[in-house]
C-alpha cells in the first residue's frame, strides 16, 4: 500500500469548488470562541461541500491567521456570512425554507443515529459555544434538536469534533 501524493488526489480547484453542487446544508456557529474550532469547521465544510457557514456573535470571521491555521484556505472556498445575533441567522434560514436543527442535548432531542432526513429539503445545523452550548433562545427557534449518542463518562464533545460527525452524517444522508 502506498500513500497518495497530493497531486494524485484530484481535488477541485477553489474556482471549481465555488461552482460545484453543494450539500443542502448550512452550518451555524453560535458564539464559538475558539479560532481553531472555527477553522476546523470551515475545513470540514469544504470537504463535504457545505453551502455556507454562518458565524454569529463572538465567533471570529476571516480573514484571520488563527482561523487560517486550521482551515488551510477553506475559509476562502466556503461561503460565509456574519450575524451579530444568532436568532437573526435562524430567522433568515427559516424564511428561506431551511429546517433548522440545534445540535444539543435537550428534552425530546432526536438521536443522530435515529434521524430521518428528506433529500428534497434544505437543512441547517446550529453548533454552540464550547462551554454553554447553543443558547436556549436559539434552541427555542429551531425545528428540532439533534443529539449525538455518547456512551462514556463525558457528556460532551469538542465543537469541531461534533461538527465533523454531524456534517458527515448529513452529507451521507442527503447525497446518496
From TrEMBL:
Coiled-coil regions listed: none
Domain (tRNA/rRNA methyltransferase SpoU type): residue spans on this chain: 25-167
Zinc as UniProt keyword: no
GO cellular component, one term: cytosol
UniProt keyword list: Methyltransferase, Transferase
Record field: transmembrane: none
Gene Ontology terms for molecular function: RNA binding; RNA methyltransferase activity
UniProt record, GO biological process: methylation; RNA processing
One Pfam family cited in the UniProt record for this chain: SpoU_methylase
Key word Methyltransferase present: yes
PANTHER family from the UniProt entry: 23S RRNA (GUANOSINE-2'-O-)-METHYLTRANSFERASE RLMB
The protein, known as: RNA methyltransferase
Species per Swiss-Prot/TrEMBL record: Candidatus Parabacteroides intestinigallinarum
Amino acid at each position: 500500500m502506498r500513500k497518495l501524493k497530493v497531486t494524485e488526489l484530484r481535488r477541485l480547484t477553489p474556482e471549481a469548488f465555488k461552482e460545484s453542487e453543494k450539500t443542502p446544508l448550512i452550518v451555524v456557529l453560535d458564539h464559538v470562541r475558539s479560532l481553531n474550532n472555527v477553522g476546523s469547521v470551515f475545513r470540514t465544510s469544504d470537504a463535504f461541500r457545505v453551502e455556507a457557514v454562518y458565524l454569529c456573535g463572538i465567533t471570529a470571521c476571516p480573514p484571520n491567521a488563527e482561523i487560517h491555521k486550521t482551515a488551510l484556505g477553506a475559509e476562502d472556498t466556503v461561503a460565509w456570512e456574519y450575524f451579530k445575533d444568532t436568532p437573526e441567522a435562524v430567522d433568515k434560514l427559516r424564511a428561506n425554507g431551511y429546517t433548522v436543527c440545534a445540535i444539543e442535548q435537550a428534552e425530546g432531542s432526536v438521536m443522530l443515529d435515529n434521524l430521518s432526513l428528506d433529500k428534497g429539503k434544505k437543512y441547517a445545523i446550529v453548533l454552540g459555544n464550547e462551554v454553554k452550548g447553543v443558547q436556549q433562545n436559539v434552541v427555542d427557534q429551531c425545528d428540532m434538536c439533534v443529539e449525538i449518542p455518547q456512551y462514556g463518562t463525558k457528556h460532551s464533545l469538542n465543537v469541531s469534533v461534533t461538527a465533523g460527525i454531524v456534517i458527515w452524517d448529513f452529507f451521507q444522508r442527503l447525497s446518496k
